[in-house]
Each structure stands twice: as C-alpha cells, then as structure tokens.
C-alpha cells in the first residue's frame, strides 16, 4: 500500500474546502475533491493534482455512488472532511419539501453514509481521522435558519457517536466555525453587527480553520472533540 496520505474533502469547490484542498496538495496528499455542480474551483484543484469526484448529496443514491468510487480508487483514507453545506434560511426551506430534505441529507445523512461506508479505508490508514464541519449555532440556534441549525446539531451528535463507535481505530472530531469569511451578499451593516458580537472583532479568514484541521490531525489523543474557531463569538449569541 502506498504511504502517500489520502484525503477526501466534500464541498471542495469554494471557500474553506477549496483552500484546505490546496493546502493538503502542497503537503503531498492525494486529494479527492468533491463538488456538486460548481466546477470553477474544482478545475483549478485538478490542475494542481486533485482528483475531482461529483455527487449531489441531496440525492443519497449519489452519495452511495461516490463511496463506491472512492473505495475503488484507494485502499486507505487518512482524512475525511465533511464540509459540504446547504445554507438555507427558513424561507428557502419552506418553499418546497425538497429543500428541507436537502438540508438534512447534506449535513447529516450524507456524512453518516460517508463515515460508515469509508470506515474500512479510514481504518487502513492507521491514523484515520474524520473532521466534521458543524457550526457555533449547534449550541445556540438562530431562528432564521432553524432546519440548518438542527441538521448541523445532528452532525455534532454524529461526531460524538461515531467517535465512540469507531475508537480506537478511527478518530472523529468537529470544528465549529464562526465569522470566518463573509459571503458576498453580506452588506456592511451585517458585517459590522457580527463583528461587534465577536470578542476578537475580526473576520477570521480561512487559515485558522486549516490550522485547526492540522491540529486535530497531529494530536493523536483527541477524539469526540468539537473546537470553536469563531473569535469568541459563541460567547455572545
């Protein structure tokens, strides 16, 4: 078996998933970069050596196909990062039932299937690690994103349950991001209000998230943990 470490990052086409994939490629990883539809970032990652894998996590049959694809391509998986997200507010969720289903399938059901289905590959890596990206709102949900917060809370619970179930062979941890990188639709007033609620009063950027993945990877005595990377904002929500 090759000694090259292998990672699967879901939602790798943009923002954190994209930057983490680039960082791991720089470290010599073989990276499977998952995406749903947006190919711009994925094509750049592919030019750097990543292997793109497409699946719509709102369709669980496609999650199963992705698992089979990874199983066929590698006997080991050192790192699985469940990062894919559907950040739907209440209005979007209430528009149609499919949107509600998508929120729970992307954030809870797909990670469940991925962890369970790829457990043999994670175990074969001899230090297999799962990192689930949850949210600071799993502890104090916002009323504007009720389904999203509930689904992320489910992922937080999956983190602890799988940490117990898969030990000692596989470690499972989570990261709870806060104001890491504002979205383009966030206006200056929204940004000001968020930063006023954040003790460190800065937009964190993506590097602290990448550093936290490395911390979880490099500390073999951590499992079942959830680390807030939020500038202290969870203290004030």
UniProtKB/TrEMBL annotation:
<protein>
    <submittedName>
        <fullName>Short-chain dehydrogenase</fullName>
    </submittedName>
</protein>
<keyword id="KW-0560">Oxidoreductase</keyword>
<dbReference type="InterPro" id="IPR020904">
    <property type="entry name" value="Sc_DH/Rdtase_CS"/>
</dbReference>
<dbReference type="Pfam" id="PF00106">
    <property type="entry name" value="adh_short"/>
</dbReference>
<dbReference type="GO" id="GO:0016491">
    <property type="term" value="F:oxidoreductase activity"/>
</dbReference>
<comment type="similarity">
    <text>Belongs to the short-chain dehydrogenases/reductases (SDR) family.</text>
</comment>
<dbReference type="InterPro" id="IPR002347">
    <property type="entry name" value="SDR_fam"/>
</dbReference>
<dbReference type="InterPro" id="IPR036291">
    <property type="entry name" value="NAD(P)-bd_dom_sf"/>
</dbReference>
